[in-house]
Design goal:
Number of domains: 1
Low-confidence stretches: 1-42
Number of helices: 2
Number of strands: 26
Radius of gyration: 19 Å
Mean pLDDT: 86
Order of helices and strands: EEEEEEEEEHEEEEEHEEEEEEEEEEEE
Structural class: mainly beta
CATH superfamily: TolB, C-terminal domain
CATH class: Mainly Beta
Strand content: 35-45%
CATH architecture: 6 Propeller
Helix content: under 10%
Distance between the termini: 28 Å
């Protein structure tokens, strides 16, 4: 499908156009009491122009996660299911599930997916609108073409979350939480504690609720559940936390490439600065981060980037790649051998680059 066909779906791309989630208001951030540092890196880019387009038919992919040798792609226009599983070795779809609908096993929307093999072999899919987590058996999804969830977990109706992911002891979530970035939940999805606060406001006259919306972004948890990385779409800020066995977070490092800079526009805000990081992928050695660094294009269906910054686990950029396609998401294989990118132009699909 050509990208031009997707212009009318802009209001639904919650994970990639941060301002459309204003109804969920408070997305929380990191306490700057610990301090930030701004890192300049003058290394030249390594150009990647040898991309291979996977021969896979997709509607409108909006996110992807790589587990074992399988890409789990959230497809906004997935007629056979909102999530497609792609075997990257055979380069074919092996299952499609998560039907859109209002039935007990259907999905209204998919905020994020999560799989933590070091904890269990369960695959967690969070339905943001229904406020429920639907749990599948990973092996059954991949090998037995399972379609229906084994368990459905309902959250407290008074709390609205953007994303939820599993930790050793419960879950971590972002959402509508006054003046906090993360909610730490137990296994029964009850809030145990809060963590983090927002970055400084560009101006003191900005309402808290507007500043919370400006801080909207996304967080990613490593497969070993030791690290959580948070990004803010409207600023070039990336933050890494350690996660202990009890699910508690402690700041490890933060890097600021561009500060948050916006002004009030009615009840909302207008981003003056550039767009920041868009997607994160972990390997055993490195943290890969897709970066935009460009002004926001309000006519585009999503925000894209071509720079991929490679961090070590101490927060130092050790190399930078430049891909020849505009991507909105990345996944990197565990052996640091390949990068899979989600693209919309000239058509929706997945492009693989060898490192």
């Amino acid at each position: 499908m050509k990208t031009s066909k997707f212009k009318n779906c802009l209001p639904f791309l919650l994970q990639h156009k941060y301002y459309v989630v204003m109804y969920t208001t408070l997305s929380l951030s990191l306490s700057l009491l610990f301090g930030c540092y701004s890192q300049k890196n003058n290394e030249s880019f390594i150009e990647l122009s040898n991309g291979e387009t996977l021969d896979i038919e997709l509607g409108l992919p909006i996110s992807a996660s790589l587990y074992d040798n399988y890409l789990f792609i959230t497809d906004f226009y997935g007629e056979s299911g909102l999530i497609k599983i792609v075997d990257i070795q055979k380069e074919k779809i092996v299952n499609s599930f998560a039907n859109k609908g209002e039935g007990p096993n259907d999905f209204l929307s998919i905020a994020n997916v999560d799989y933590a093999p070091i904890i269990d072999r369960k695959f967690y899919v969070f339905d943001q609108v229904a406020n429920k987590i639907k749990v599948f058996d990973f092996d059954s999804l991949v090998f037995h073409k399972q379609k229906e969830p084994q368990t459905v977990l309902s959250l407290n109706g008074d709390l609205r979350f953007y994303e939820i992911m599993k930790t050793y002891n419960g879950y971590v979530a972002t959402g509508i939480i006054e003046n906090k970035k993360f909610a730490l939940l137990n296994d029964s999805l009850q809030v145990e504690s809060w963590s983090g606060s927002y970055c400084p406001k560009p101006s003191n006259n900005i309402p808290d609720i507007t500043h919370a919306v400006a801080n909207y972004g996304k967080f990613f948890v490593s497969d070993n559940r030791k690290y959580l990385v948070n990004i803010i779409y409207a600023a070039g800020i990336i933050t890494c936390y350690d996660i202990d066995k009890n699910g508690n977070l402690s700041l490890k490092w933060e890097n600021t490439l561009s500060k948050m800079d916006y002004k009030l526009k009615g009840d909302s805000f207008l981003n003056i600065g550039v767009m920041g990081y868009l997607s994160i992928s972990f390997t055993d050695k490195y943290i890969y981060a897709l970066y935009s660094g460009k002004k926001e294009d309000n006519n585009a269906i999503a925000t894209y980037g071509q720079e991929i910054h490679v961090y070590d686990y101490n927060g130092k950029i050790i190399k930078r790649y430049m891909i020849n396609n505009q991507a909105l998401g990345i996944c990197v294989t565990k052996n640091d051998g390949y990068i899979y990118t989600i693209v919309h132009n000239p058509e929706s699909g997945i492009i693989k680059y060898a490192l």
